[in-house]
Amino acid sequence: MIPILFIITIIAFLFVHLTPGDPIRIMYGAEIDQETYEQMREREGFNDPLVVQYGRYMYNMAIQGDFGQSYRTRSDVSEEVLRRFGYTFILTILSMFWAILIGVTVGIISATKRNSILDRLGMISTITALSIPEFWFGLMMMQIFAVQFGWFPTSGSGTWLHLILPSLTLGFGVAATIVRFTRSSVLEVLREDYVRTARAKGQKESVVIWSHVLRNALIPVVTMAGLQFGFLIGGAVVVEQVFAWPGLGSYLIDGILTRDYPVIQALILLFSFQFLLINLLVDISYGFLNPQIRYE
Amino acid sequence: MDKQKKNSPFRIFLRKFLKQRLAVFAFGLVIMILLVGIFGPLFAPYDPHRPVTAQYADKGIDVDQLTSSTVQLEGRLSNGEVVDQSELPQLQTETENRRIASIRRTQSGVQISANTSGATEAVIESGDVSSVAEILVEGEVPLDDVEPIVSQIIIAQPEEAFSIGDEYQINFEALKTDGSEITTIEELRAYTEEKYGADEEEDTSGFQSGSSENEDSASFQLRSLTEDVVTVNEQGVVQFEEEGEGIVQIQSGDVSSVVQFQVGNEQVEPILTGIYLESTTVELTDAYKHQTPSSMHIFGTDHQNRDILSRVIHGTKETLLIGFVSVAIGTVIGTVLGLLAGYYGGWLDSLVTRMTDVLLAFPGILLAIAVIAFLGAGLTNIIFAVAVFTIPVFIRIVRASTLSLKEMTYVEAAKSIGVPNTVIIFRHIFPGTLSVVMVYLTMRIGVAILIGAALSFLGLGGDITAPEWGSMLSAAKDNSSNIFHATFFPGLAIVITVLSFNIFGDGLRDALDPKLKE
Amino acid sequence: MLSRKGIWLLIVLSFMFILAACQSNDETPNDESNNGVTEEEVNETENDNTNAGNTNDNEEVNNETDASSESGGEVTVGIEAEPTSMDPHNTTDGNSATVQSTMFEGLLRFDEDMNIVNVLAEDYDYSDDATEVTFTLREGVTFHDGTEFDANVVKENLDFVRDSENGLARSSFFSFIDEVEVEDDFTVTIRSEEPNSAMASYMAHSSAAMKSVDEIEKKQEDEDYNLDREGAVGTGPFQFVEWRDSEHVIVEKFDDYWNEEELARVDQITFRPVQEASTRVNMLQTGEVDLIFPIPTLNAAELEEEEEIDLFTGPTTDVFYIGMNFENDKYEDLDVRQAMNHAVNKDGLIAQVLDGYGTIADSAIAPNVYGYSGQPIYEYDVEGAQELMDGSEQSDGFEATLWTRNSTEFISVAEYVAIQLEEIGIDVEVQAYESGTLFDMLDAGEDTDMWIGRWSPGTGEADYGLRPNFASDRVPPNFNNSGFYINEELDEMFDEALATPDEDEAMEIYAEIQQKIYEDAPWVFLHIPDAIIAKNRDLVGIYVLPSGAVNLNLAEFQ
């Protein structure tokens, strides 16, 4: 993992330094003259060779744990990332909650009432859910529940009510994936011998479902939900933008639009680390839950 | 393979596919969308780049939609002469609510322009005299309960000279916008109090700024402007006190006129006694933007007053282009890499697999954003960005099926008789991967369209003025709390397109899946 | 067993997170106000206790402050974006300037009618040739850190900002100053090499604020001292408390403010950056904030209807224009430029893009700018414009690229103009860039074709409104004549006007300059947007300057 992260630092560094756009102009607008401009470039070290700049960047980051100052607000990037991470974390956790709640419920219903109208409806809804752009779904939710009914604030953060629409929007797509996964997983377990045995014993269907089927069917679902976590964070970029949620996603987009190098660098590193970590955890849990994998 | 005896695989596939009615329907939709993409521009009702108002004339649609009009006005002098507006001194114009309509002086007259629908009044003032025009701007706000207002006051101008001690009863007509008149002082006073009295206590906001000046236009006035020469009582009787020029003003809120008297024999200079408006009601239409869906524009118009239906139709091509081209690039590169990695194995395989793993670890949208941030916005860059994260998907699936096909006896046989590797790969293995590639291709097109739209929506797309679904949504989102149709229809177009591809892909997969029996 | 535990663990965890989320979020809006109040009350009671044994005088003073803080309250303001700095000498954006205006003062300032009024100066005098201006300073002014204000402070401040070694964004703004001389403790003279009758206007600009010399010394001693974040020590009625990114900047009442009549009426002002305009509007409606600006024009209409909300709309000093590159042959012909001006329907632009909240620009500067002189505007006349085009060198029309910033407002204007220019055969492609990138490209000056500009002279007078845009020595990379407009006649007139101490004569020259510019049409003159500010009805004492800037120093609750 370390070498991959190291490569990513180089990519992140090159990425931000080779893209067009000049942070000094972004910071001060047009109202500074050429001389001041040159002074500032010098001061910020933009005139040094790239290798020197990269060295300085790595030194600050690795040795001092300092991700630098935002060019735009001159605030400490590490602090800001930490603060916004909280917002994104809350959003993704709640989205995951919705996704699991809706996904597992619909998935179980579809599986147990296989080939019924409900099942077909469920399947069509999931494929529809996967076809709806998150941002449009968010706008529509906003239009209906915030503007027409006035139940929730349209956007922004502040109260827990602000969290409902963005999290539902974000959870919606993942819910669809979980529905499909739950359905097939439950169907598979239903074919197992022990289920047949339980039924043969004359246990009530609900007991069979709750105590035998779910318990075993949900293990892969949980793993799979973990894997979706990374993708939730990706989706959060769009949803945060729609609902003006002050998380990492909007920080990233703002950073890109204003060429806030330190912010982009820090976030690319953070996201990479996060995804690698999630993948690692998922790999480990696969092996843990299913010992066969180790032999492959 | 055993089925090959009875039927060709294609016929089996076809039979299986046709059984899924939904998928067939989706396939029909896909074909239709393709047709719209190719031929749509030919039958789009309007030019998607120009405001519809500019096109009504060409289309032969006769719509009386005036957004601005010039008000003809003249000044009346006390000697009965009429002067053109260009000669009026200190002509000042103002609308009561600038948000509904604005007024300004131009070389050719006084021009009133509608801004948004509603009713307001325009005051045209020159010195002590002023007139009011009612402005009705048609649009969303209903205009049924707009009361007629006094637009101008015409005071009868006596032609003779007076001498000290004379009395004179002022006669006037206050013309209302509905054509009726007020001729008595009591009535006018009552009218004025009713109309202007109420809003006298306005303007107590806590804002302080230099430009806010308080005019005392609120009340009814009947007064002499030259008190040493003439006086006037509440009934409008003028008393002449001294020789010289006497002026009496009648004011009802924003409307005001004067009458001039010559007391004694000395000739007085004629003065401006009133402003005469040719039309006292100006009717305009708010046809600038955001027309709601109607028979003329079934999807409504957008913030630049362009027909949304036409834009959606024109946007189909671009959206499909993003979907097809990016996935095509991704498929070709991904398939080739997957074939090579799967067939040769070794270091090439581990390198490609490792890269694939890293790329797949990232959500597609983040990867695409990164690529766009690096390359800059634009249609080609979007296509490239979407292609980049399509590649690993195809590498993975093609590699997997290559691995299993490699073990097939016919491949082994080919190898043993010394068929070159390239031939084996493209003759014997590649066709075997084709079916699964086709399924993923269809499914990825939907994803590609979604990501492309998301990029445009985030402001990372190319030409923001282009009729492209994502940019249309991006432009409309700021008004989404007020305007529904501008966000709804482009989004719906995306959903229907992506859904069609997804259901079609689903159907394909099921039909190609050998596990599913007929 | 393990699997079951796992599931439950997950569910419980999710619930806990949600609860945590609800809780933490529930508190945020009230956090500042409630906690702020209680903390202060605690402090006050503590003060009372400690003061109990002191003399009566002290108690009285204490009671007084108690009384005033009772009537005070706290104002929360929703601003458009995060401030970038708390150092006026390093600030070029309006949001930072708004926050700073509560804490900092300069020698002079502009009032609501754009007159120059004395603040830390008691008087000022120009020398006859307008090369010197001498300020008599106010005595008895203290900074928030307790240091005294005197002539030396002025010199230290101006010398520090002018020194380009210090890399402050405003150093070029003060480049007109040749020397600052301390005459005695409370008299200071500013010299410039060229006659400059606008010096007082420059000194009334918000960036000519005075900060404590201690802060400057800290920076001189320690290179890493962050003046932008920490150096907010001025003489204003409020003093800096804290700045938390994306959350707030808090300033509190400064009790020892020199001007007792204009002592702050509220205890605290919290500035909250809220980027999304609709969120700002929402927060005002729910009472989370008391004042917001700017506001999208469509929302303004909606707010106008609301009982509990006051809406202010008034002209600003911003002028929107389409610039064009004179190095490009397309724009050489005056007919083409005038045709372009005639082709754009400014009334329609204001109605459609600004929902009526704007006025037509009838000069290169706005009416609120000192020295403005209106011209007969280029009326919308497509046929006339087409005729002009037909008779010009570009009778076949041409293709052009229009650069715009990527904000909704700018893009809408650009789209509108592009659509209209198309009608006279100019095929315009709109390209949107992030504003920093755009400035970069304009300063490089290589591929410039047409661009949308917005200019507002911070000094409120004609010289800064015109010279940067039209003087020959301001072509790229010097800012801001990005269209390489060269007019030597104007260059001479700019200098002449500045060197004319007599105001009326100077005004006449400026009027002539504006007429020449408007007739020569180096821009497509567009519009002057309104400032739109909305507030809670109970909040009063909000001053709006003609530039559209908001001053909160005398805000109070009814």
UniProtKB/TrEMBL annotation, chain B:
GO MF terms, alphabetically ordered: dipeptide transmembrane transporter activity
CDD domains per record: TM_PBP2
Keyword entries, A-Z: Cell membrane, Membrane, Transmembrane, Transmembrane helix, Transport
Domain of life: Bacteria
GO terms under cellular component: plasma membrane
Similarity remark: Belongs to the binding-protein-dependent transport system permease family.
UniProt-recorded name of the protein: Glutathione transport system permease protein GsiD
Organism: Salipaludibacillus keqinensis
Automatic annotation (TrEMBL), chain C:
GO annotation (BP), single: peptide transport
InterPro entries in the cross-refs: Peptide/Ni-bd, SBP_5, SBP_5_dom
Comp. bias regions, Acidic residues: 38-47
Region (Disordered): 25-74
Keyword Ubl conjugation: no
Keyword vocabulary terms for this entry: Signal, Transport
Solute-binding protein family domain segment(s): 116-473
Cellular component terms (Gene Ontology): ATP-binding cassette (ABC) transporter complex; periplasmic space
UniProt signal peptide: 1-20
UniProt superkingdom: Bacteria
A GO MF label: peptide transmembrane transporter activity
Family designation: Belongs to the bacterial solute-binding protein 5 family.
Annotated protein name in UniProt: Glutathione ABC transporter substrate-binding protein
Organism this protein belongs to: Salipaludibacillus keqinensis
